[in-house]
Each structure stands twice: as C-alpha cells, then as structure tokens.
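> @MW can you paste both from yesterday?
MW: sure, first one:
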Amino acid sequence: MIVALRSYESRLKEVDEAQKANAMGKYRKGDHVKFEVVNEHSGESEWMWLLVETSDDTKQIVFGKLDSSPIVFTDMALGQELAVSFDNIRDHRRFE
C-alpha cells in the first residue's frame, strides 16, 4: 500500500533532518527498491522500482520517485513522488 502523507515535501524534509541528526536509514539516497502495488478490488498487482530519496526507519517508510513506467496502474507515472511502506518492498539494490 502506498502511504498517503500530509505533504510529501514537508515529510521528506522532516525525515532528512532527523536522519542528519541520527544514523543513516536502511535505504539511502540513490538506492533502488522494488515494491508491489496491489489493486484490492481486482487483485491485479504490479512490481515497480523506486529511486530512493530517503527513508524513515522508525515509521518504516521509504520516499522517492517512481523509476518504472507502470503498465497496470495507469494513474501512476514515471518520476512520480511516492512514499512506500517497507512491507511492500520486495527487492533492494545499491549501486556503489
């Protein structure tokens, strides 16, 4: 499930400031995570990649931009800013 938050930008700023004061989150800026989106009515699902901006380990949410072109979920778009629950993450890649 994609998490709806009051404002992506303000929440991202809060998390970024908190992480600067604490240890780095589980997912770092530039990482890619593959997450699953499921339509609760039809049961259809799609796996997509998210380019990570930051993550909040306490709330178990990762923030970033969609790095895939959705096929099933046409109301989503490449580059769209999203917040995704850790529960929906299926893969993680760090390119260093």
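MW: second:
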Amino acid sequence: MSLNSNTNIIDAKLPKKNILRSKKTIQLLFDNAENMNTNAKQFPVKIVAHNINVDETPQTLFIVSKRFLKNATDRNRVRRIVKEVFRNNKHSNPHCCLAIMYTANVVLPFNTIEDALLRTIEKINGKIAYTTGKSIPEINITTTTVEL
C-alpha cells in the first residue's frame, strides 16, 4: 500500500499481476485441484486452490457464471463485490493460486458475500497447512508492521 501524496487516501489496489488470466495456468489450477483436497465451499462461494512455490506471485481468478446470473450487470456487480472483499482482506489470503466462484442465483448483500468468502478462505488456509505440513504464520493486524 502506498500513500497518495495529493490526498490522504491509502491506495490499496489489487494489482494486475495478482489476477489470473493465463489459460495454461487456469487449466493447471483445475487439473491439479481435482487431485488435491484443497477445495472449499461455503454458500455462495466456492474456492479451488493450487499450491505454488514461495517465489511465485499468488494469482486469483474471479468467476461469476452466466448459468447462475443471466444479467451481465449483475455478474459484473458480484465480481466487483468479490474482488473488493478479497482486496480488503489481503492479510488473510493464502499464498496459492485461487479460483473464486460465485454460485448463487441472485445478487446477495456485501456482508453475506464477505462472511462466506472469509470462512471459505479460512478453510483453504487450514487445508493448505495440512497438506504441506507447514503452519501458516500468525499475522498481527493491529499494528502497522507485520509480525511473522
């Protein structure tokens, strides 16, 4: 996060390098996800995860299917809400490639989507720690420095 010099607003964007767009990586994500037990579902969110090396950048794919939401403006709104929740909670996101899928037939309120996404990410964090045998470091969010 950087502080904008013109205003006192903190710039906390989700960088383009963290958005998954490569067809090859997406195929790898779904092929390996079937073999690993790192899937988690909490209505209306389903997450598929794939472990990556420490030196690689974790990337995320946001999926809102036309099968569930027919109207494009609804799909775009839900995609923006999911991205915002994911961006606001960067500190709890696992270091892996993720595919976040929205599975509800209606546009749900921000708080409902946020609760479901955070619970699902907690499940993923636990499963990744279990499969890799490594514990996830505790992060202290009350101060400006991150303690590992």
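> thanks! The chain has one domain: 19-132.
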